[in-house]
Amino acid sequence: MSRSSFGWLRAGAAALGLFAAMPAAMAQPTAANPQTVTMWSHWPDEASKRNYVEARVRAFEAANPQCRIRLSFIQKADIYTSARAAVRTGQAPDIFWLEPDEIAFARNGFLEPLDRYVDLNGLEDWARTSWSHNGRVYGLPLEAYTVELYYNRDRVRALGVEVPASGQLNQAQFTDLVRRGVAAGITPLAQGVADRPFPGAYFLEEVLLRRLGPDDYRKLLTGHLPFRDPRVMAAMTWVRELVDIGAYPRSMATLKLGESHYYFHTNPGALMFPIASWYTGRAFVPPESGGQPPGFPLGLMQYPVMDNSDCPECKTLAVGGSYVMYSRSRNKECAGALLNSFVNIESGNQWMESVLLQTGIRTDPSRISGINAPYFRELQQRSEGARFFIGTPLQYMTGRCADTFQQVLNRALPGGQISPQDAAAQMDAACAAAPQ
Amino acid sequence: MPAQAETARIAVPATPRRWWPASRQGGRDPGAPSWLTLMVFLAPALVLYAGLTAYPVVRTFADSLYDLENMDAPRFIGLAHFLQIWSDETFLRAIRNTLVWSFIAPFLDVATGLLLALCLYAGVPFARFLRIAWFTPVLLSYVVVSILWLWIYNYDWGALNLALRAMGLDGWARAWLGESNTALAALMVTHAWKWAGFNMVVCLAALHALPSEVLEAAELDHCGWVAKLRHIIIPLMRPTLLNLYILAFIGKMKVFDLVWIMTQGGPMWSTETVSTYVYKRAFAWNTFDLGYPSAIAVVWFVIVLAAAALLHLAFRQREKLEY
Q1: Radius of gyration of chain A (CA)
Q2: What pTM value is reported for the model?
Q3: A78, A278, A420, B111: most buried by Cβ count inside 10 Å?
């Protein structure tokens, strides 16, 4: 072989080496060669959350010129369907929106653990736990909520019922309030389940949690306590009694979540609205965008406690909308840095101030101000001294059990379509855990 | 000259034109396309068909034999899913709902279409306008139709309940989609409304194609409208009506969009169809296991195929008996 052919070889090897090194060089984003992170978020129709996320993303881009964010707001159901298909084919966005009940994404290796990218000390312990799998944290728990019972102060007062300062009514007082509402031609509880698998069960869940206490309630949700337990049956029978009185709208089955907000505060108007504290996302916007009317007499009461309740101070606290990182993302540096930019007290406070909702990011509520600060104080007041149960039923249930929950406890029982006995039998058949 | 040319034309034996390419060895037909040419033209369609139809079908059949809960380690389980299916109460309920819908609703569809076509055929006033108006729902997407009928069925302010209340029938007003015993029927009516226009157009074409001498003879015999309809029009239109029935049947065996938007299978699975159940199992059960939904899809594919073949056979045999 001639000397010149060795020269060609060397040049070829050098070119190959350069070519091989290119991806590594390109992987390090620079201002001249920025990484573009694709991000799918829910909340297209919740202006305050959308504005918050857009503001955070813009601030991040300004501080990190080497990263570009392509942010899209998509309805939750569409994100779930698209993401479920996209993660298998490597086409999922770098960051997308999920709730903790979708931990199956992490179990199947589709999510990147955030431990390396996010300051986990900046997250509340309970929020971290909600996204933990095999000791790793997979989600940034931006949204958190408590399950609340909102009410129209004026309408309740007009019925001759005075809600005490503690916001607490007992079983008989609450039944009486429902009866008075029906007699006055006002729907007592606004609720819509057409596009969500859970709100119809909020009332029952909260009553059950207080009646059973957190330990037995957890057992119930995980199939280790039967729904035919006398305490559970008593709660379900009471709920059915309220349903028979006319507690829920007859149009509940076709009423969507967004519409149920409007039903409560505007037309036709209801006495109460069992909903998570993310009520504000849809209600605290201008009326022309579907928000509650100016000066709406919004109040917060505690869920009623049944007689002999084991834990009257119990309350559900859950992580809601969170951001996760795709395990096959090619832009992990920028994606991780973006997620971490959410994790600081200023960012958490900004979320609470603008969205008026809790968060899994550590915050300092004493620093919150603004025109909605009184509402936020009342929200906090309702949780003072509360013993929190972390997670909603659908974060504990999967498969057939979750489907039965959706059909039976979310729709059929509050819709008056099923007796408590049948409901309990169906839930037990679907959810009973295998004997250990 | 013309006679000679005619003779020459008759003398040349007419060989049937081959659709397949000439073989290399045998007498090569210079006019026949080569394999290469054929493939160039066929390849795009074949690739699309293989990629978008054949592969998904084969993959579905294959997936039905695996437990795919863990994507990285598919576990071959043979026919276990197929055995499990028959003890799955929701699946059995979905089958029952779909079969009820598929067998009963087409009668409603075809009858409505025929009725509308007869109205137009009889020359009702504003026939031209009505033909367009009745056909319009066919052009609407299921999403639009669903939303429209969600409003109509709304308990508080829906047109149906408002009409009932206006007639003093307050007790009949109900949450049509919220009650187990009315939800499926409400969906059937919606579906029939959407497709009535299509059936109407086909029936109208068939009505215009009826032999006029038969109808005129009937009129000469002083045959009334009802008798003419029963003894002449419907028997003569029978092949058209049966084809419409089979088309509607197959369409309803696959129904998904309408149910998903209007009830999502509820309340209490009373409107669950096989398609919505497969979708739920594949995408809404917080699991990535596509094995079980694939098994349902395979079973349903076989059932639809068998039912369509049976209907076709049954109708063909009856036709043979009659004619």
Answers
A1: 25
A2: 0.81
A3: A278
